[in-house]
Amino acid sequence: MSTSKFYTFAPTASNGESFPFSQLEGKVVLIVNTASKCGFTKQFAELEDLYKKYHDQGLEIIGFPCNQFASQDPGSDSEIVEFCKLNYGVTFPIMKKIDVNGEHQDPVYEWLKSQKSGLLGFKGIKWNFEKFLIDKKGNVVHRYSSVKTPSAIAGDIEKLLKE
């Protein structure tokens, strides 16, 4: 049994139900703050491709919608999920919309940012579609900026799945 704090979180899924991270133990996890009306929104397609390709090997992708960056995800939780499914065929779990920075930041993001800072030591999330890659033991091993496409991190995912 891992002692990683990662497995103690239980954020709320878009359907209002608890999504305990304890069910992710032993899996490689990619966490992404998403937005439906962003220049990077097309990354949903690549995220879904990764999910389809690696889910059976132990990859879980979790999307956390966020409206903190230029109000690029203004819809309700159900509207966001419907948008993702209709436009990008998203089947990976989408959580309830959260804040990733500031006074009301979600505890998951507070922890993720404490584990791996961004460029030049910056702790905050700079924009939509920043990604955190977590290994099978619940450790944050990589943090990627918004410009790093999901397909560009496939090699890192494959490496962790083999460990």
From TrEMBL:
Superkingdom is: Eukaryota
Q: Which Pfam families match?
A: GSHPx
From the UniProt record, list the reaction(s) this protein catalyses.
Answer: a hydroperoxide + [thioredoxin]-dithiol = an alcohol + [thioredoxin]-disulfide + H2O
The record's section on InterPro entries has: Glutathione_peroxidase (IPR000889), GPX_AS (IPR029759), GPX_CS (IPR029760), Thioredoxin-like_sf (IPR036249), Thioredoxin_domain (IPR013766)
Q: Which UniProt keywords apply?
A: Antioxidant, Oxidoreductase, Peroxidase, Redox-active center
Q: Which GO terms describe its biological process?
A: cellular response to oxidative stress
Tagged with keyword Repeat: no
Q: Which residues does the Swiss-Prot or TrEMBL record annotate as the active site?
A: 38
CDD domains in the cross-refs: GSH_Peroxidase
- Domain Thioredoxin: residue ranges: 1-162
Its transmembrane ranges are: none
Which Gene Ontology MF annotations are present? Answer: thioredoxin-dependent peroxiredoxin activity
Name the PROSITE patterns on file: GLUTATHIONE_PEROXID_1 (PS00460), GLUTATHIONE_PEROXID_2 (PS00763), GLUTATHIONE_PEROXID_3 (PS51355), THIOREDOXIN_2 (PS51352)
Output the PANTHER family linked to this UniProt entry.
GLUTATHIONE PEROXIDASE (PTHR11592)
Q: Which family does it belong to?
A: Belongs to the glutathione peroxidase family.
Name the record gives this protein: Glutathione peroxidase
Species of origin reads Pichia inconspicua
Taxonomy, top ranks, is: Eukaryota, Fungi, Dikarya, Ascomycota, Saccharomycotina
